[in-house]
Amino acid sequence: MSSDFEGYEQDFAVLTAEITSKIARVPRLPPDEKKQMVANVEKQLEEAKELLEQMDLEVREIPPQSRGMYSNRMRSYKQEMGKLEKDFKRSRIAYSDEVRNELLGDDGNSSENQLIKLREERAHLLDNTERLERSSRRLEAGYQIAVETEQIGQEMLENLSHDREKIQRARERLRETDANLGKSSRVLTGMLRRPHKNHLRLFQFTDEEHETRGHSAIYPAQIRTQAARLGSLHTHQLCYTRKCPTHPLPVSLLRTHAASLNSSHNRGSALRNSLNVIL
Known about the structure:
- This protein folds into two domains: about 1-110, Up-down Bundle (Methane Monooxygenase Hydroxylase, Chain G, domain 1); about 190-279, no CATH class.
- Helices cover about 85% and strands about 0% of the residues.
- It has helices at about 1-25, 30-60, 65-105, 110-215, 220-230, 250-279.
- Helix 1 packs antiparallel against helix 2 and helix 4 (about 110-215) runs antiparallel to helix 6.
- The radius of gyration is 53 Å and the shape is rod-shaped.
């Protein structure tokens, strides 16, 4: 790409040198040769403009990090082109004055006021031309800025699209994790309920055993206190509907019952503490 740009530069340099030489020769040529020379210069100026357009396209395709140097060179070439056009316009104005004088037979005796007016009009036209050229350069600079801004916007949209995909994947992972946590919570809740069920079953088994043996007496107060201290359920009512004073509760059965309650309570407490640490 840079080789093409350099080739256009060489062609532009050769062409502008020829145009400069011909513009300088226009005022000194005879009328017939002047007319032919002006047409030739106009054609070469069009070729120079086409070369500038090709060079501008090449610069736009250069990566942004190395585009600055070529942009500066393009600005200098455009300024040189503007200067050539101004010189050519001045030479054409001088050529038109000579043709007018030849056609009208003007021998330099025109009034001074008319000459001043013509010079003012020429200066005004040149000023307007310069303003138009400056406006054109500003428009070109604005166009380049718009192109660069569009490229930056496209890169930002691509980055936002990638970020959106990452956020969506993270959201899906969070949903899966939430579902797994819900399942784990239900499993742990079931594990926590098992020790309480075991306590109820143990008391039910003990009550049935006493019923079959005929021990239907009410538990003494010290048995209630000991059972509560060993970790039995407070909601369980330790009582029987029938009284049997002649058949008290055996001490061995009480010890076995208390040991079972203590072991079950310890296992339930350990499991509960472990689950609290995990949660």
